[in-house]
Amino acid sequence: MIYYTGKNGQVGWELSKRFASAGIEAIGFGREEWPLDDLDSVEKILEKNPKVLVHCGAYTAVDKAESDSENAYKINSLAVQKIAEECFKRKIHLIYVSTDFVFDANSETIGDTLRFWKTNSSLSPKGVYGTSKAEGEEWIRKTFSGSPGANIVRTSWVYSAHGTNFPKTILRLLDDPNRPELKVIEDQLGRPTWAGRLADFIIFLINGVSKGESFPQTLHFSNSGVASWYDFAVAVRDISNASQTIKNVKPILPIPTEGYPTPAPRPRYSILDLDETRKLFGPVPHWKEDLILCLNELAESSGKKL
């Protein structure tokens, strides 16, 4: 039996589809079934000893976390501590979905070489969300020190056809007659990640664990390739325009981070190194390839296909 949290989120939604199609027995938990801010609920929910717990659920409202830090730390740090301790005690394999927000950098290059964050790079979070997620990671490392019973999977810029995310926001703004143009940040770089591909990787780990295989405790997963938010937005517009799923092609203008202030700081540079992932999982598609798949799913739901 597999348990997974965040069933109504982007990754949980993609996992649920894959569990069903593969005939994998799994139970998903949303906020109603498992309120993560209720620390006393952990022991009761895990008392049936599932083989694996995939912990996708988190406090992900990055800006709100700055003014709601108590809840953010309770869910992203203290709840993870309780979950890790209970999983370790019960020998439940824990897969914890983490974030590129545990890193931050002001420099984009070392000499002429792009900087890639390694799985063992020192954490340098900025803001409540990133710091609370980093604390969650540390609780897992401390609890499972020397044990193969947990994996931390860092990812970045996650999107899907479900929920609220960057591509869907861009599509909505492109369709807004009151916006003659869009302005999108160009000096934050990362790797967009289709939640469906991330779900495939998580199921790869689950299948390996069920066969007795072990993996490095900390792993990175994202699509390959590098983009700015501006690049990402332009790709969403151009791919969707080719399928005529948007009504017009508005100009998208690049702006610096300072041109779009937010309560919480964002990593300027959060490109995750994928070398270990490729060795285990094989080649990972470029982010534009999977963006087409996701936008195609959205287009099909509206009667149009890319």
From TrEMBL:
A Pfam family this chain is assigned to: RmlD_sub_bind
Q: In which pathway does it act?
A: Carbohydrate biosynthesis; dTDP-L-rhamnose biosynthesis
Query: SUPFAM superfamilies from the xrefs?
Result: NAD(P)-binding Rossmann-fold domains
Which ranges carry the RmlD-like substrate binding domain? Answer: 2-298
| Any one GO MF annotation of this record | dTDP-4-dehydrorhamnose reductase activity
Where on the tree of life does the source sit, at the highest rank? Answer: Bacteria
Question: InterPro entries of this UniProt entry?
Answer: dTDP_dehydrorham_reduct, NAD(P)-bd_dom_sf, RmlD-like-bd
**Reactions this protein catalyses:** dTDP-beta-L-rhamnose + NADP(+) = dTDP-4-dehydro-beta-L-rhamnose + NADPH + H(+)
Q: Which GO terms describe its cellular component?
A: cytosol
Alphabetical keyword list? NADP, Oxidoreductase
Look up the EC number in the record and give it. Answer: 1.1.1.133
- DNA repair is among the record's keywords: no
Q: Which CDD domains does the protein's record reference?
A: dTDP_HR_like_SDR_e
Its BP terms in the Gene Ontology are: dTDP-rhamnose biosynthetic process
Q: Which residues form the signal peptide?
A: none
The family line of this record is: Belongs to the dTDP-4-dehydrorhamnose reductase family.
* NCBIfam families referenced in this protein's UniProt entry, alphabetically: rmlD
- Say what the protein does: Catalyzes the reduction of dTDP-6-deoxy-L-lyxo-4-hexulose to yield dTDP-L-rhamnose.
| Listed name of the protein | dTDP-4-dehydrorhamnose reductase
Source species: Leptospira barantonii
